[in-house]
Amino acid sequence: MSLTAQFRLMAQYNDWMNHKLYEAAAKLSPEERTADRGAFFGSLQATLQHIVNADTIWLRRFGSHPRFAEMLAAVMELPQPTDLRGEAMEFDALRVRRAWMDRQIMHFACALTGADLDLVMHYKSMAGVPGSRRLDGLLMHFFNHQTHHRGQATTLLSQQGIDVGVTDLVVLVPEA
Predict the structure, then answer these.
(1) C-alpha distances out from residue 97 to 7, 52, 74, Å
(2) Nearby residues of 22 by Cβ (< 8 Å), 6 or more positions away
(3) 141 within a domain of the structure (yes/no)
(4) Would you call 130 helix, strand, or coil by DSSP?
(5) 29-51 CB burial, b ≥16 within 10 A, e <16
(6) Is residue 176 part of a domain?
(7) Full residue range of the structural domain in which residue 15 is found
(8) pLDDT tens across 64-84, in order?
(9) What is the distance between the alpha carbons of residues 128 and 40, in angstroms, rounded to a whole number?
(10) pLDDT tens, N- to C-terminus, the chain (176 residues)
(11) Is residue 19 part of a domain?
């Protein structure tokens, strides 16, 4: 499987898992979703908000490259987040934003070429520190970051008696 195909698979996995996660989270009351459970971002909802916010930050960074400006134009219209928590959104609005963001990610991943993966992206961290890294490595970070925090979210759901079901990537890996 080519690296571009692997990133498409990760975009598919991201979409699939987020759908499952938000379906599970919708079973909780607003108070249960926003209660501080001692997670890194406190509550389940704040964790979900962070993932959307971080995705926005990274997609805007990718969209700042001339090669990706057109394909990520809609994301570039979103306000630039000022921190990693992001502006708090009501759950239903957050769910709509997540689904929209996942469509943007899928569109982006499906448009990538092998040559794109070698491009060097120049960006600044949230603290203003400049960075220059190849797109392939940044995409690995992008998808790994989502998985990391979704793991926290599934734990928070499990602690409240909600089973998200199968979360293994292998479910989406094609049979050989």
Answers:
(1) 21, 8, 12
(2) 48, 95, 98, 99
(3) yes
(4) strand
(5) eeebbbbebebebbbbbbbbbbb
(6) no
(7) 3-171
(8) 999 999 999 999 999 988 888
(9) 23
(10) 899 999 999 999 999 999 999 999 999 999 999 999 989 999 999 999 999 999 999 999 999 999 999 999 999 999 988 888 877 899 999 999 999 999 999 999 999 999 999 999 999 999 999 999 999 999 999 999 999 999 999 999 999 999 999 999 999 998 99
(11) yes
Q: Which CATH number fits the domain that encloses residue 113?
A: 1.20.120.450
78 C-beta neighbours (distance < 10 Å), count: 16
Place of tokens 């759901």: 157
Amino acid residing at 54 = A
Structural domains in the chain (count): 1
pTM above the 0.90 mark? Answer: yes
Dist CA 26 CA 21 (whole Å): 9
